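Q: Got a minute? One more chain.
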Amino acid sequence: MASRARPPASANDWLKISFFALIALCFLAVLWVDDRFWFDPSDPHARRVLAFRSLLMFHGLMGLTALTAGTAQMSSRIRTRKPALHHALGKVYILAVCLSAPVAIYIGVGALEPASIHVEQVFQGGLWLICALVAWTCARLRLMQQHRDWMIRSYGFTLVFVLSRVPDIFVSHYSDQFLSDMLWSLIVCALIAPEAIATASAIRRASARKQRTA
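A: Always. Here it is, folded:
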């Protein structure tokens, strides 16, 4: 029997591919700019984070796991064609967030970070964890629309793991005030992203129905 032809990628698929490719590019750039101290003990930043080195490594590995698993969770092809893999990756994502978020809060309120962002770090790590747990609870209760909304919120906080360090690619130093404003802005974006995406999708479907009716 001939295999079924794969449908061509839609505009929405290409939008997703472009977005995740951009995130991957940002991650590699941030890794090169910010994390070279892991491989260069003479780097001044390596001495600065020495007391938190093990915790930072654990947090980073769990954050990378959440970023990778979360990206796969956003794939509609995996969700519809390989539900078992989708569920397994979801469990990996939830576990990674549950391990990484408390460590992020602990580090974020310590001496490693400026006092101006201590409160923000509690909200960032706490909301990341809460959104993931609510998404998991909704999935257990088969509330799939709510599950998707809360997963997108949680994934938005996962992206802060990368996006908050993108300015480091372009400038070597900025004020604590700029850092605080940027992080709070990313929190707001993570919270409103599901509503923005759902509204855009609803508008697109309504427009398509209107055109068909006309």
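A: The CA atoms of residues 140 and 147 lie 9 Å apart.
Q: Perfect, thanks.
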